[in-house]
Amino acid sequence: MGENTYRFGMVGLGVMGRNFLLNIADNDFSAIGLDNDPEKANALEQEASSGHRIKGVTSSEVFVRLLETPRTIMLLVPAGKIVDDVIEGLIPYLDKGDLIIDGGNSHFSDTERREKSLREKGLHFLGIGVSGGAEGARRGPSIMPGGSRDAYPRVKSILEAVAAKVDGEPCVSYLGPKASGHYVKMVHNGIEYAMMQLISEAYDLLHRGAGLSVDELAAVFKGYNERKLKSFLVEITASIFTKKDDLDEEIYLIDRILDKGKQKGTGKWTSQHALDLGIPIPTIDAAVTMRQLSALREDREMAADLADRPKLEETRADKAIMINAVEDALFFGFIASYSQGMALLQAAGSEMNLGMNLEVVAKIWRGGCIIRAAMLEDIMKAYRKDPGLSNLMMDPHLSNEMERCASAAREMIMFGTRRGIPLAGLTSAMWYFDAFHTSRLPMSLVQAQRDYFGAHTFERTDRSGTFHAEWY
Ligand code: 6PG
Prior knowledge:
It is a single chain. It is built from 19 helices and eleven strands. By secondary structure, it is of the alpha/beta class. The chain folds into three domains: 8-178, 3-Layer(aba) Sandwich (Rossmann fold); 185-436, N-(1-d-carboxylethyl)-l-norvaline Dehydrogenase, domain 2; 444-472, 6-Phosphogluconate Dehydrogenase, domain 3 (Single alpha-helices involved in coiled-coils or other helix-helix interfaces, Up-down Bundle). The strands form three sheets. A seven-stranded mixed beta sheet has the order 3-2-1-4-5-6-7, sandwiched between helices. A two-stranded antiparallel sheet has the order 8-9. A two-stranded antiparallel sheet has the order 10-11. Strand 5 (99-102), helix 5 and strand 6 (124-131) form a beta-alpha-beta unit. Helix 8 (180-209) runs antiparallel to helix 14, helix 11 crosses helix 12 and helix 14 crosses helix 18 (424-436). The N and C termini lie far apart (82 Å). Bound molecules: 6-phosphogluconic acid. 6-phosphogluconic acid (6PG) binds next to helix 8 and helix 11.
């Protein structure tokens, strides 16, 4: 390694890029960052722990000149056109064999296009999903790489060093060619949306439905996190319920936060592509829809006075019973969410030749990422036993767990529905489960109607072939 050159380059020194690069330097790889903003470039050097080689620059030319060859350059910039602009800006300074890595939440179709066009220019490209937010990037994210298989060995040791570890094993593994990494990250985010929606419904059931105070909610979610629901999202939920408002120590911050969901689009992309592939993911869809519905705040405020709403205070339930039932219902919903996301990955993997191994995906999601959860151990085992499993609900252990929690989930759906508490996520998980576990759906009637008005034909249960009836 040249004394004056750097092993790893990062373009974009916003909080994610800076933290990821500091993590790399902490692991004894020399690192250089590029950002147009001189303050960000300086801040990088100031934040680095002593004894590590790290430098911030503002010129692309200097940045590229100071990189060890063949060069390794990662981008952590906002997804979209900026990624193309940065790549275009770098290309004139690069040599054949250099590697560009996009670590943002890029749409997989953009990653596919970029990988192909850079390959044609003799450059390598990896699209990698990075999950864990700012803290994860600094202390150990889950990393989902896909793209150039030839170039991966060049960054393997760096990514393994910076990634989160579970039982000493790094939460990173090469997932497959083309856009495998970004596809897996997109579905990770879809599952993230579903789990967050389900947790928010659990909050609604317990808070408005059973009358638990915010204090009580903090204790209940802390308890949940000690059992089968153990996960990052349940853990931070317990912590959120302990936070007081800085402006008023008497008030919990949660009670001051506007109930308008925002989104950057990764959940919606998951739903859009699942529709294209014909793979049902209703709990993820419901989560996207509920963010959209919540955003219609003005309409909701006006409509709230139009309908006579059930009086929640008059029909409160026993708190202890509710706390147990919600725990089971939430677990039921979590299994349904992972099942939907994994079924989509299974289908997309074969349809698009992405080559992902779902046991490995579950393994690298166990630490560092937003959807890390104890139950991923069981998911990993399910795919180890049967790598071709088309749906996790067909794994005997997970199927038993769902069956065991289904009656509590049904109780909670009935409880919520009677009281007008919207449970889009939990209800969708239930009908997904029910529809999946029946060998006879009323779709026979839909087929008959299609044939009646449009001669679209139907298949029969007793004979093979395609049929049309003279209905009238
Ligand atoms: C992660 C997160 C991260 C980001 C989401 C937020 O894995 O670290 O998923 O990527 O926080 O994209 O997405 P929304 O703004 O759409 O909720």
